[in-house]
Amino acid sequence: MSLHITPLLPAALPLLQDLWNRQLAPHLVHTLAHDLQSPGRAHGQNAVMIWRAEQVAGCVGWITLGIAEDGCAYGSPLIAADVEVATALIGVVSEEVRAAGAQRLRISVRAGENAKREGLQQAGFSALFEFVNFSHALPLAAAPGLAAGLHAVDSGAIDWDRLHACYAETFAHVPNSPIPAVAALREEWLAANPQASLVLADASGEYQAFALVDGCSVEGVGVRHGWRGRGLAEQLYQLAAAQLAGQGETEIRALVAAGNAASMRLHEKLGFTEYAPRWTVYELRL
User: Fold this and answer.
1) Per UniProt, what is one Pfam family of this protein (predicted)?
2) How far apart are CA 132 and CA 105, in angstroms?
3) Same structural domain for residues 100 and 152?
4) At what angle do helices 83-99 and 114-122 cross, to 10 degrees?
5) How far apart are CA 229 and CA 180, in angstroms?
6) Confidence band, pLDDT 50/70/90 cuts, at residue 264
7) Contact of 99 with 77, CB cutoff 8 Å
């Protein structure tokens, strides 16, 4: 039966979530609707579904935020029932990001996503690096006081331009971390877990560090160059973990590029362990 593409249809998302969970079991992910309709994917406009007759067979979203900086776009999430579907979706997302000016396309593969992996390899993608899935049971450790010279910014008083400048500097060379626009960063932050997220400012009001937490997962920790080497990233984790424990969470999670030696050392020092198989990031030059 032939395949056909449609825009994202929210009513079909539970079926796609079920398909994805069957592939990923036992390491389930329940964020498909959130991911496909995120600000980075233009609230679902940068996403399509694929059908075989009346049966939904997959979907793909794409992120073009990083094209202006480094020419790289991202296909995520890509869910495919079989290799034929994966091949069709890879073709769709490749054309979309190429039209947006991308020179490279990256797509990650988790354990169990065998059809997607085969489709990527057939399309000429090459394995680039791995992501490590870390977790730690709560409580983590007693939360320390803030570093001298810094104070926490109230979540209702964040200056989004200053936070964006801090984010852009600290994530400038982090793999697979395109810098969102100010409005998108604000929306992402407020839709995550703003009570557990943190922004630290110095006496002049400049933002020097932050931790963005979504659910129980640390989505990003950034420390500006002048404050590095003082254990600030460790403090941010401890403070975020204390907030999560207060919310009734039982664990804290993080996703780290295996080649990020400093971040790997930090998580191992804090006692994090790998709770799920690593993801592989594949890349194709367009």
Assistant:
1) Acetyltransf_1
2) 20
3) no
4) 60
5) 26
6) very high
7) no
Residue 220 has a pLDDT of 94
Q: Are 67 and 100 in contact, with CB atoms under 8 Å apart?
A: yes
pLDDT, tens only, 45-65: 999 999 999 999 999 999 999
pLDDT at 226: 94
Q: Which residue has the tokens 């080497």?
A: 229
Q: How confident is the model at residue 143 (pLDDT cuts 50, 70, 90)?
A: low
Domain for residue 285, yes or no?
no
Number of residues that this document lists for the chain: 286
Q: Is the Cβ–Cβ distance between 201 and 151 less than 8 Å?
A: yes
Give the span between the Cα atoms of 97 and 90, in whole angstroms: 11
Sheet with 72-80, side-by-side order of all strands:
3-7, 47-52, 55-63, 72-80, 104-109, 273-285, 126-137, 251-257, 217-223, 207-214, 198-202, 150-152
Q: Give me the CATH number covering residue 18.
A: 3.40.630.30
| ∠ Cα 137 140 144 (to 5°) | 170
- Mean predicted confidence (pLDDT) in 231-257: 95
Q: What residues make up the domain containing 265?
A: 135-277
284 part of a folded domain: no
Number of domains in the chain: 2
The mean per-residue pLDDT over the stretch 165-184 comes to: 91
Do 168 and 73 have their domain in common?
no
Contact (Cβ atoms closer than 8 angstroms) between residue 59 and residue 78? yes
